[in-house]
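Consider a concrete sample entry:
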Amino acid sequence: MRPNEEPRAERQSSRRKDRSGESGPHKLAPLPFEEDGLEPVISRRTLAFHHGRHHKAYVEKLNAAVVGTDLEDLRLDEVILRTVDDPARSKIYNNAAQAWNHDFFWQSLKPGGGGSPPAELRKRIDASFGSLDEMEKRFAEAAIAVFGSGWAWLVSDDEQRLRVLETGNGDNPLVLGMTALLTVDVWEHAYYLDYQNRREDYVHNLIGELINYEFAAQNLRRAGSERGASSGRRESGS
């Protein structure tokens, strides 16, 4: 044990208590904007249900499933990667992935979003898709085309190309070895109160008016930094 470090059992106990009344190692993060901050594209009522009930339920179910296991001290992404291929832990995987996806979705949106991406991201979009309009078209098409419930993603692959892909249910790019840049949630609870069955209107409005390209650029820079650090370690033989 490191100097001044709590014993593991005591550390876990204190973590369970320091969660504004939440029980377990994972916390429902607050929205990065006010509940009415995305109106009129997404209503306050939808956000109250989506974040305060659906997202919260994923976190609560995950906490109930991991407390007291070897997964309790892991980050969400680590839980996802540890359980994705384990049928016995499919409940943990599904709730961890959905908690991670929702955290990422809220960051993918911002009041007054859309518009032109930062220069470095715009350059990569143009190189990968030909234009921002073409990328947004493919992104929207992917979101609209998801069969049933799932997600559309803008990602960076192993060759640093940008791609658009769909995932069903709670799956995400982490399990495919890709870096997520942006996502659109197309589970019905994300839009039904506002749009009923008009998923297409929801998707186009969200991408055009709320998508957070600054967040995507941050994810792209972080991926580049991590790739550079990994390459440096390999070259040094460490």
Summary: The first helix runs from residue 8 to 17. Strands lie at 150-156, 162-168, 179-185.
